[in-house]
Write a structure and sequence with these properties.
By secondary structure, the protein is mostly beta strands. Helix content is about 0%, strand content about 40%. The chain has two domains: about 80 residues, no CATH class; about 270 residues, 6 Propeller (Neuraminidase).
């Protein structure tokens, strides 16, 4: 900023006294030379950039933050994703419960044809048969992680069941049943805090049940009953999308759960019965059935769905696993016929980027 000169000659009175009555006031803008800002020592805080001690676990695309531990300004950039072939299941099957992550998954139960109790574990490269379910079932809802999971409901002749089994990483144990018989529903959360919603029988259901680690409680229903619906998130913040419903069928509906009620949000671009992976604000929807087999992939950014790279194989009723949008599995299903394929979804360049250094 340039220098400012002001003369006080007119402030000396005829008696030799100093007149200070007009020394206050606003300097005209024309009197200020905007030549330099080198003397500025501070600026207001940038409120749009969060200050955190550690990087956010699931940042939004384009989010910026300052890490006070590393003293770095960082941002998250979501790049294009792609599918790659993974290790094949030991048995071709459809309608299995998918659990876990890209490198630590479970494929529980399914249809061979005919219900199976078979359980397979994925290590990021290959599937290994591990201890079976107590009851052969298909269309059960897989919830949780490879070492701590649930398989809720499903179909076992002569009909849909309310059975609930808990996995400790080694064995399945029968635990408290659902309040109603159901299968082909959605669900998400953890082994000790989960929700299970929608499904059949009796036409597409809207019921929603909350699991607290020991029992199920009926809570707020979906706005629209559906079956073969995808579910991602946790028991207090979740997303339900796609699925068959009376009209249209299959549906493109997406609903968001806030811990007490469901709200309809932006639809999928392609309505279909589908499975998905991810967290509720960054979800993925893959493959499915629209009356024909499809290989669509769509990504959710918290507001809307965007078409992404297609998978290699068009299929339906496969299992899926994944806890982040940038890494997931899709396995088995019908192409037709039933397949043992595994496809791995990754967004390799999605990462926290340093915007500047300390």
């Amino acid at each position: 900023m340039g220098s400012i000169t002001r003369t006080f000659a007119n402030n000396i009175t005829t008696g030799g006294k100093f007149d200070a009555t007009d020394l206050t006031g606003t300097l005209p803008a024309s009197n200020v030379a905007d030549a330099s800002v080198t003397n500025i020592t501070a600026v207001p805080a940038l409120t749009s950039v969060s200050t955190v001690a550690s990087d956010p676990p699931s940042p939004d695309n384009g989010q910026l933050w300052y890490n006070t531990t590393t003293r770095l300004l960082k941002g998250y950039v979501l790049s294009d994703g792609s599918w790659a072939t993974g290790g094949a299941l030991n048995q071709a099957k459809s309608q299995a419960g998918g659990i876990g992550t890209l490198t630590a998954g479970l494929c529980a139960g399914g249809d061979l044809p005919g219900e199976t109790a078979n359980n397979e574990s994925y290590d990021g490269t290959s599937w290994t048969e591990v201890n079976n379910l107590n009851a052969a079932t298909r269309l059960g809802q897989g919830i949780g992680l490879q070492t701590a999971a649930l398989l809720a409901g499903g179909y076992q002749p002569p009909g849909y069941q309310s059975k609930n089994e808990s996995w400790d990483g080694t064995n399945w144990t029968e635990t408290t049943n659902l309040n109603s018989n159901k299968g082909a529903g959605g669900g998400c959360g953890t082994q000790t805090a989960a929700i299970a919603f929608a499904g059949v029988p009796g036409g597409p259901m809207a019921t929603n049940e909350l699991w607290d680690g020991s029992s199920w409680t009926e809570v707020g229903d979906l706005n629209s009953g559906r079956r073969h619906v995808a579910g991602v998130g946790i028991s207090t913040a979740a997303l339900a999308y796609g699925g068959d419903k009376p009209s249209p069928s299959p549906g493109a509906l997406t609903e968001q759960w806030d811990g007490s009620s469901w709200t309809e949000v932006a639809d999928l671009n392609t309505g279909r019965s589908t499975l998905g992976w991810g967290v509720y604000n960054l979800a993925g929807a893959t493959l499915g059935h629209t009356g024909s087999f499809v290989n669509n992939t769509e990504l959710w950014d918290g507001t809307s769905w965007t078409e992404a790279a297609d998978s290699a194989t068009s299929t339906k009723e496969g299992g899926s696993a994944g806890t982040v949008q940038s890494a997931g599995l899709y396995f088995g299903g019908e192409s037709p016929p039933r397949v043992a394929n595994t496809e791995e979804w990754t967004i390799p360049d999605s990462a926290t980027k340093d915007v500047t250094t300390a």
